[in-house]
Amino acid sequence: MQVRFPVTKAEFDAYYDLRWRALRAPWGQPRGSERDELDAIATHFAGFDKVKGVVSVGRLHLVNSDLGQLRYMAVEERLRRQGLGQTLLAKLESEARLQGVKWLMLDARESAVEFYRRNGYEIEGKAHVLFGDVQHSKMQKLLPL
Question: Three-class SS string for the chain?
Fold first, then answer.
């Protein structure tokens, strides 16, 4: 798998399709709900497999010069627990360092909290409940130099 920026329209279409299928469709949300106003200024990464296409996605945007936020991380359901999320997260963190970020924050679904804890993120507290059903926790990490 290669983790890199999506470049072409087809790559971005596949990127947003996975975001929708993994993070919105299971809760009956319409296409388009996987996008927001920060997409245009954010840094997007996707994991590309030569056979399977886009298999993982994630986004980094700057909150301020020292703080970045990770959002919309997802791995193709049938490929989870194979290290794809780990590879994607490492790439996002590396890019954050290149952009001068010292701290990363994210709102993790409860099903992903342990993944982020294993990767050095600490729970700050409860966050929002998405779609009236999906509890999130606020998490943060100081990026090592």
Answer: CEEECCCCHHHHHHHHHHHHHHHCHHHCCCCCCCCCCCHHHCEEEEEEECCCEEEEEEEEEECCCCEEEEEEEEECHHHCCCCHHHHHHHHHHHHHHHCCCCEEEEEEEHHHHHHHHHCCCEEEEEEEEECCCEEEEEEEEECCC
- HSE of 83, CA atoms in CB hemisphere, 13 A: 3
pLDDT tens digit sequence for 117-133:
999 999 999 888 888 88
∠ CA 108-7-38, rounded to 5°? 40
Q: Cα separation of 24 and 33, whole Å?
A: 7
Model-wide pTM > 0.85? yes
Task: Residue 140: name the closest of 114, 109, 112, 108 by CA.
Answer: 108
pLDDT of residue 113: 96
Label residue 32 left, alpha or beta by phi (over 0 means left) and psi (-120 to 50 means alpha).
Answer: left
Within 13 Å, how many C-alpha atoms sit on residue 91's CB side? 21
Residue 145 has pLDDT above 80, yes or no: no
The amino acid present at 143, given as its one-letter code, is L
